[in-house]
Structure formats: structure tokens, C-alpha cells
Amino acid sequence: MDFGVVVIVGTGLIGGSIGLGLKKRGLATTIIGIGHRKSSINKALKIKAIDEGFLGVEAVVKQADIIILATSVSLIPDYAKKIIPLMKKSAILTDVGSTKDYIVSQVNSEIESTCGGEKPTFIGAHPIAGSEQRGIDFARSDLFEGSVCVLTPTILNSKKCITTLSNLWKALGAKISIMTPSKHDEILALVSHLPHFVASSLAGVIDEKYWKFAASGLRDTTRIASGDPELWLSIGTQNKHKLIEVLRCFSEEVERTINDLEQGNDKKLLGRLKKAKTVRDKKKWK
Amino acid sequence: MDFGVVVIVGTGLIGGSIGLGLKKRGLATTIIGIGHRKSSINKALKIKAIDEGFLGVEAVVKQADIIILATSVSLIPDYAKKIIPLMKKSAILTDVGSTKDYIVSQVNSEIESTCGGEKPTFIGAHPIAGSEQRGIDFARSDLFEGSVCVLTPTILNSKKCITTLSNLWKALGAKISIMTPSKHDEILALVSHLPHFVASSLAGVIDEKYWKFAASGLRDTTRIASGDPELWLSIGTQNKHKLIEVLRCFSEEVERTINDLEQGNDKKLLGRLKKAKTVRDKKKWK
Question: CB neighbours of B159 closer than 8 A, spacing ≥ 6?
Fold first, then answer.
């Protein structure tokens, strides 16, 4: 397999790991990295995650067969806007953002409103390969191995392009899951965005002077609260409606716990603790 | 230092680690372990966490200089009831339970109602040295090194006994923090019991079929939800009033997040995410 000229916009943990993974497996003719800091481009070049690196995307878009937007979710629509008029009609534009409905509709609207005739392709993607670390320093060629990559194509996409993108992620070791952008956001609201805002709320109510009494329980439940606030604000607001829904559902569960404690309903409390343990213990964590 | 004959009731992770720590440092004449399963006593003997092991506590109490109740919190008051009439007047009875107000008042009531003349000593203690693992297999002589051990003496305790117990925990590597049982429960409600019930509520609202899309964020925020449901029911109900209070406080924080998302108040959302990150990042985790 050769995916041709691959442009990766954003040479951080995810972008860098895509580059390393493609290079290691010989899957691209050329990998071009786009960053907004010279230092991260240089690091990406040094570890051979990319073959060439630039600060601006415009000059290189024309050559690209696949363009992967691996920036913070807040920057994806703007980058897409710049790229769409310049890309080859046969090329595929894709992303790795943690939200899909907002991004896919923004980018597809842009395509609809600015492109006549044969339209360029955008397919939303989200490799679910988390790490608490960020930046090119933590990039690894095997980051996606055994992980799930969600693709959220729409009726605008050809079967051929969907297959190409699936093959790329499969080649990087991911299992493909195809669903609508809206279904993706519903699931990720539960398994990723909710935990983040819960962890942050938890850390937020604990007075600074009491943290010295905390052990590994609080350390782990709040770990993700140390994530980048701006990034998580963007994710939360882009997936606002679904996040509100799951926060309400969670809040009702907390209320039930409070009520059962007040009423001394040990049987219900125990049932809830057991149910949570059972569902969590079933998952095989990496 | 020699703490004489030390009886450890409960040869699990904490009891076993106390035994190993005392033995390694030569701090006791004899360490006697009490378990309710022959197998865990045998394991404790095998790894030399104890010198002698028995199934019942009654026969050995008379010889003890220090008796440490290292069982599940739900069993501590009943064990104390059995031990109090049999222990030497000069001996110290203590525990390692995660709640203090309920235990200290139960045990002291027992002492008040059953003992005339010189009364035996009970001092509540809580070494905050968590591990997701349980049982003697995970016991380590250095488990308490660098950790905090809270002591919750009352006016019934002599300065001499408080000093002896402090010295024991210092010798095991812990830093001592002395406070009232009620203050202990207020702090632990926040830094330990709240995270547990939050993690459990979070795991409880996520449908089984969606866990395959979860990454390390959900893994860590819900890790403690895999803890023993019966143990956590006991902790939650013993510290019920303070737990309800902090759950309410947390629930209000979640409500504020929902409101800010609904109203598009990005500034407040960002402020809250930043505050949570700042307070968490200040703590140096082990």
C-alpha cells in the first residue's frame, strides 16, 4: 500500500505518531508536516516522523493525496477552509478531532458553499488513542495499535475514499468503527467528555489545603483534569448538547446516591456500587 | 524502639505491611497476626509479616502491648468489643479504618459502659496509604513511607499513649497528622469518599456497549469504582453526613457547569477548567 503524498497538519502527539507509523511501515511516498512552531517541526524532522516540514499549509496542499488535520479541534474548521480551494479533487481531507458533528457539518458546509462541479472529499475521523502526554516528544509509531478509530463518513463521500481512509488506519494498527457524526458524539460525550468535566468538577471542589491528605484514588480520578483547559473548552462547547445531556444523566445518578444515603437505603447503594464495579471490570484495559 | 507484643487483627494489605515494616526494622518483640482465613494467616507467616498467627483474637489479647485493628471498617467496633474486656490496662488499642467519628465514638462508648476504674486506651488512626490492590500478596514493608497517618485521639487518651502510637507510625515512615475524628471525616469525605462515589456514579451511567470506545481517561477516572462494594458501602454509611454534604457541593459544581454550557458562558467554563488544573498540578503525587 502507498497512500502517496500525505500532509499532516499539526505535528504533536497524534500527528507525529501518524507520521512515524506511516514511515515505519513504508506507507507513503512523502510525508509533509505542517506546524505553527518551527521547534516542533524540527523535532518531527529529527525523529523522522516527517520528510519535510513547513509553517504554512498553502504551498504544499496541491501535491497532497491525503491531508490529515491533527490540530486542536478549535482550529480544524479554519484549516479546512484554507485547504479546500487548493486541494486536488482526487485528494482526501480528514481529521483526528474528538468531536465530529460540529466539525463535519462546518467543513461540509464550506465545501458545499465554495466548490462547484466535482467536490473535494472530507471524511471525519477520530482515532481513540489517548495519552495524558501531549506533543511530538511522546509520539510513537505504535500509538494506534489495538485502538479504535471511528470514521464518520456522510452521503457526500464515495465508497472508494472511505475504503482508502479505512485502509490507512488499519495499516496503522487501528480497528475501524464507522458511524454517523452524531452517534460518535453521543458515545464520546459519555466515555470521554463526561469523565473530563466530572474529573474537573471533582478537583474544583477540593480545597487546596486538603490535597496533602489525598492518595492514589484522588490522583487517578482527577488525572485528566490536568489536561489543557482551552482544548477541553473547545471540545465541550463543540459537543455542548450531548455533553449537557450526559452531565444531567450523571447528575441524576449522584442525586440518587445522595437520596439513598439520606434514607439509609443500603440495599440500593450496594446495588449501584456493584453494578458500577461489574460493568467496569468487564472491560479489558490496554 | 521496641513496641513489645503487637497483635495485628486482619492480615491483609495494611495489616501485612505493618507487620513487614515492624519486623524489618526490629520494632517488636513478637508480632501476632489474627485472620479469619487460615490461608491468609499462612501467607503472612510465610512472608514473615507475623511471627505467630491465630484465627481468634481472644487467646492472645492478654499478652498484647499494642493491638491494631486492620480489618474492614464494618468489623472494627465488634472486634473492639471482644478485645476491650481482655486487654492489659497499659495496652493501646488502635485501628487503621478510613472513617473515624463512627468508630471512635462506638469504641469509646464501649469502654465507658463496660470498664470501671482505670480504662483501656483506644486511639483511632488512619494511615493514608492507598493501593488498588488488596490482600497480603501486595503487602510491602515500605508501604507507609512518605505517607500521612492521621491520629484522632480524644481527651480520654494520655499523652504517653499518643506519643507511643505516633512513634510507631513514624518508625514505619509515615508523617503524623493529629486532628479530631470529625475533622478527619470531613477531609476524607472530600479527598477519598467523594471520589469513590463519583467514580462509581460515572461508571454506572455508561452503557456496557460503549466501553469499547473508552481510552485511558475513563480507565483512570473509574479505577476506584472497581473497589470492594461492601467495604465502600460501610465507609459511605459510617461517614454518611459528611459524604452527603460533599456530594451536594460537588453536585452544585456540576450544575454550574451545565448552566454555563447552556448559556454559552465560555469564560466561566474556562475559569473552572483552569482552576481545577491549577489546584491538581500543585500536588506532588507519589
Answer: none
Q: How far is CA A121 from CA A59, A68, A159, B145, in A?
A: 19, 12, 11, 58
**pTM score, two decimals?**
0.94
> Which of B132, B220, B276 minimises the CB distance to A200?
B276
All cell numbers assigned to A162: 472511505
Query: Which residues are registered as beta bridge partners of B178?
Result: B151
> How many Å apart are CA A171 and CA A177, to the nearest integer?
14
Q: Look at B191 and A283 and tell me if their CB atoms are within 8 Å.
A: no
Residue A140's nearest CA partner among A167, A96, A172 is A172
CB neighbour list of residue A10: distance below 8 Å, 6 or more residues apart: A34, A35, A69, A70, A71, A72, A75
Arithmetic mean of pLDDT over chain A: 95
B98 and B235 Cβ atoms separated by less than 8 Å: yes
Tell which of B257, B260, B265, B281 to mutate to test the A interface (max A CBs under 10 Å).
B257
Interface confidence, given as ipTM, is 0.93
The domains located in chain A, with CATH, are: 5-179 (3.40.50.720), 184-282 (1.10.3660.10)
Q: Does A248 touch chain B (CB under 8 A)?
A: yes
Q: Does residue A18 contact residue A141 with C-beta atoms inside 8 Å?
A: no
List C-alpha distances in Å: A10 to A34, B76, B282, B283: 6, 57, 29, 31
| B245 φ, ψ (degrees, to nearest 5) | -60, -50
Given a contact cutoff of 8 angstroms between Cβ atoms, the answer to whether A91 and A33 are in contact is no
pLDDT in tens, B157-169: 999 999 999 999 9
Q: Which chain B residues are within 8 Å of A202, Cβ to Cβ?
A: 194-195, 198, 250, 276
Cα–Cα dist A274/B233, whole Å: 10
